Amino acid sequence: MKLSKTEEQLMQHLWKLEKAFMKDILEQYDEPKPATTTIATLLKRMTDKGYIAYKTFGKSREYFPLIQKAAYFSNHLNGLIKNFFNDSASQFASFFTKETNLSDDELKELRKIIDQQIKDNKK
C-alpha cells in the first residue's frame, strides 16, 4: 500500500522529527496550515496502513514512523522501475541520465558510484 501525496508530506515531517505530537507536526507546515482534523485523519490512515504508530501519554499521542525514509524510497523507486521500465534498472538509468539534463560532472559522479558498487559486489 502506498502513501498519498498529502500522507507523504506528513511522513516527511515525521522522518525529520523522528517522533512528534500533533502540535509538533502542525508546526512543520507552512501557512496556511492544514486543519487539525485533516492531520488527525491522515495520521489515522497512515497508522491503519502500517506506516506509523504512536505511544499514548494521557490523552495525547506521540507518533513515530515504522518505516525508514530510505526503505520507503527504495520500495517506491523499485515500483516505478517495475511499472514504467519493464522491471529493467538499465532502462530506468538510461531514461534518468537522458531526461534529467545531468551535467558532465554529475554523470562522472554517477559513474564513480556505479564503479564503486561493482567493486563492492565483487567482494
From TrEMBL:
Any Pfam family the entry gives: Penicillinase_R
A molecular function GO annotation: DNA binding
Stored InterPro entries: BlaI_family, WH-like_DNA-bd_sf, WH_DNA-bd_sf
Biological processes per GO annotation: negative regulation of DNA-templated transcription
Keywords: DNA-binding, Transcription, Transcription regulation
Family affiliation: Belongs to the BlaI transcriptional regulatory family.
Protein name per Swiss-Prot or TrEMBL: Putative antibiotic resistance-related regulatory protein
Species annotation: Kordia algicida OT-1
